[in-house]
Design goal:
Layout: H1 2-41, E1 47-48, H2 50-58, E2 63-68, H3 71-81, E3 87-89, E4 92-97, H4 99-106, E5 113-116, E6 119-122, H5 128-131, H6 133-137, E7 153-158, E8 172-177, H7 191-200, E9 221-226, E10 233-235, H8 236-248, E11 255-260, E12 262-263, H9 274-284, E13 288-292, E14 319-325, E15 336-337, E16 356-359
Helix pairs in contact: 8-9
Length: 374
Amino acid sequence: MENLTSVSRSWRALRSVRVIWHLSTVVVAVASLAMAADAAAGRRHARLSSDLQAHLSSGSGAVDVIISGSREKIARIAQRHGLSAARTLESGAIFRVSRQALDRLSQDVEVDALSGNARVHSHGVLTTDVTGADAAWAGEIRSLGPVNGRGIGVAVIDSGIAGDHPALANRVIANVDFTDPQGRGYDEYGHGTHVAGIIAARSYRTPPVAGADSGMAPAAHLINLKVLDSHGDGYAADVIEAIDFAVRYRREFNIRVINLSLGAAPTQSYKDDPICLAVERAAKAGIVVVASAGNFGQTPDGKLVYGSITSPGISPFAITVGALRTNGTLDRSDDEVAPWSSKGPTLVDHLVKPDLVAPGSKIVSTAEIGRAHV
């Protein structure tokens, strides 16, 4: 009797599953018909960054558009719209399109989001005592023991690194220039060299780990990925390529950290922003991604600006760092967030950012000859 009851219950359960399966089939069919109807009716489907929205509304001429996705997906979209990629990325492609073509792309049901090839800009950047670096060197952080960055690779995605600075001798183990296929990653602006020194400069006058004469991790090695030009400017596509390069070669160079002291205006959700998507890929590959918050937290007349965190600092997959004023003392009780440091929440997703603050005013570091950005 119990067996018959069990069979009966199983049969009723199976019938329920079949009903649910049929209902799910109907839902999928209806959804497919709705998508087809949307396409036929010319309804908007893609999410556009705010710069592309503005161009679609009142712009003229051609504009660069980044479409993220697999090579197969990009090939289908390109063929469907009669487009040729101006540049192929590991994670998508860039197309130079007219306003009309942008409108058609925005209505393609296979296109989830469209992003502009945003301009990115360097972010100008106290001592190792304030940050706790000297305590880490001395082994005072019990859970870590003595650490100085030995064996850790840091990918510096910036304006390049000067190869002739004595404090950076033997620090840089690879140079890749994404601004010039023939380039060697030399710093023509000075910002990248300055950042590199903060990370891993090694004193050449006194023994290593000599307080302010050394970087935060004086034994770490650097991977120089140049994406900014002689004016400290660059494009989102180059930053994306550099991040993907770091992910691809993370084991060869033991890249454990990516540093991004740069940013672009936040024009869309981090879920669609192609730089943020690259940051997410890096984080999921096990790399710690550190991004600056930006320097847009105050207007020229002194008013505070909220929602001013730049991309990729808007990503929850990045550790976003704001700037701190130490007021020239080692006492942390008088520290304050620099008024010009960008403030959250993030503009589109309303995330709490930055994640932390660190000394970012009057920082002394390495400089390319004839150029100093402090």
